[in-house]
Amino acid sequence: MDFGDVEYWERFYRxxxxxxxxxxxxxxxxxxxxxxxxxxxxxxxxxxxEWYLEASALVPRLLPCLPSLAEEGQLPAVLMLGCxxxxxxxxxxxxxxxxxxxxxxxxxxxxxxxxxxxSACPTLQWLVAxxxxxxxxxxxxxxxxxDKGTLDAIMSATEWQxxxxxxxxxxxxxxxxxxxWLLCSFGDDRAECVDEQLSELGxxxxxxxxxCEGRSERWHAVRERIALPAHSPEKEAGGGGALExxxxxxxxxxxxxxxxxGE
Length: 263
Description:
Layout: H1 6-14, H2 44-47, H3 55-62, E1 78-81, H4 88-94, E2 100-104, H5 107-116, E3 125-128, E4 142-148, H6 150-155, H7 160-174, E5 175-185, H8 190-194, E6 211-215, E7 219-227, H9 233-237, E8 250-258
Parallel strand pairs: 1-2, 1-4, 2-3, 4-5
Antiparallel strand pairs: 5-8, 6-7, 7-8
Pfam families: Methyltransf_25 (PF13649)
Domain Methyltransferase: 78-179
GO biological process, one term: methylation
């Protein structure tokens, strides 16, 4: 099963989403939920559980990593990579992060989530885009990128050896110097998948420690191992929900910081 295939996800979402005219590739890059007309979507999507790591459990882990809202100046610009139908952006919006652009290669889910969040989260932005190629997004335009399982989905695809580095390069391009990429994954090898210079990340780390770090020409990378709760849905499923993953007992939070050129 290829979780990196848009057709798989279109079939998946078609089971839950109401018929709608989805935006085209790159369309609505700067439109918000407030721009859409009225019309209620079925509540099935709202009632569904997160298929991959509970968003409500992730938020307390992510918030300490994000730029402080107390800092002077404009709110940080956040890019949600492969947003799907997750509530993660809505929960971060409730926490005060209102400048979030959500991208996914499924037109169906983008149209549905745009309608769903129109009233409660009016400044969320929605864009149909493949995370390995996002020409509608300007270079050095985001402070933070967040990925909850998208790279893991790509890793299940037959062409992951080209798609994973392409995603890493594209995320690097759209982040500002010093920008942060937070990656939630069930794999302990994701750093080297996006940048081969990070292949030794954790190789010399004390096995008793849950944290390691490394550096390449483009990134400073930190990987933290986080145990799953004893009765979490992911552990009981033997991995990340629909994905078969390396270790059902833990997940990994990667923090990639984009290094300034020449550093």
